Amino acid sequence: MVDNNEDSRRKVLAYLEPVRQKAPEIKPVGLGLFAGSLDPTRPLAMSVDGPQGDYRDWEMIRAWAREIRPALLAGAVAVETEPVVLREVVLAFTDLSGTDLSGADLTGSNLQHARLSETDLQAAELNWTDLKRSDASRADLRQANLIGADLRRANLYQANLQQAILNGADLGHADLREADLSYSDLNWADLRGADLREANLSGANLGWANLSRANLAGANLNNTRYNLETTWPADFSPEAHQAILVGGEPY
After folding, report:
1. What backbone torsions phi and psi does residue 52 show, to the nearest 5 degrees?
2. Residue 14 falls within a domain, yes or no?
3. Which percentage of the chain shows pLDDT scores above 90?
4. Which domain holds residue 176?
5. Between residues 212 and 251, the one the model is more confident about
6. Which of 89, 115, 124, 214 is geometrically suited to a Cys-Cys bond with 95, CB 3.0 to 4.6 A?
7. Are residues 196 and 164 part of one domain?
8. Other CB atoms within 10 Å distance of the CB of residue 3
9. Residues 229 and 251 in one domain
């Protein structure tokens, strides 16, 4: 834009219209300010290709920069993004450790042996996913939907599964040491042979769950709810660990 006038601004906005249609969240002010201009009649520096000039309104740019700087430093400029959709995709053996997949839809995907250590999967849709032998240690799985997921021999060491839905999930021989499963739904879950040492199961639902041969040493079962169909390890007393026996109907 050669001059800071209405006609020039209109031209720049028309030029940027395709960008604005694709990404309406992008504001034209920043792009317009930094678009600059070339005017061969007012050379600033010579080159082999001819005269060039930079006639951006630097006073306006500096004023805009001063205005937006506090918001940038405070991280207050939010960019709204659509949830990631990866339904029924093959991500076996993929390294996704440390990535942000919160709210992602991974329904029915193959994540066997995937690396999900410290991955943000909060409120993610992981129902019917294949997570056999995956490494989700220290992953954030709060409120994640893991209905029917296959987590056999998965590494969930210190994973955060607060309020996660694990209804009917297969957690056979999974490493759940020090995992936070408080207030999670483990109804009908298969936990045979799972390592639950020092795990937090307080407030969780374990109706119809199978915990035979599971290691519950040091686990917190305060107010954990179970029913007469729940299978416990041999010689394990849920009452002695402050678990609560409830009726046979779903809860």
Report:
1. -130, 155
2. yes
3. 65
4. 83-251
5. 212
6. 115
7. yes
8. 12
9. yes
Query: Nearest-CA neighbor of 160 among 185, 172, 143?
Result: 143
- Separation CA 97–CA 116 (nearest Å): 4
- Write down which residue in 53, 74, 95 finishes a domain: 74
Comparing C-alpha atoms, which of 114, 110, 156 is closest to residue 186?
156
Domain boundary among the residues 55, 74, 93 is at 74
The Cβ-side half-sphere exposure at 178, using a 13 Å CA radius, reads 6
CB-hemisphere CA count at 13 Å for 161? 33
Two tokens at 2? Answer: 């050669």
pLDDT in tens, 42-75: 444 444 444 445 555 667 767 777 777 676 666 6
Give the tens place of pLDDT for each residue, 133-191. Answer: 999 999 999 999 999 999 999 999 999 999 999 999 999 999 999 999 999 999 999 99
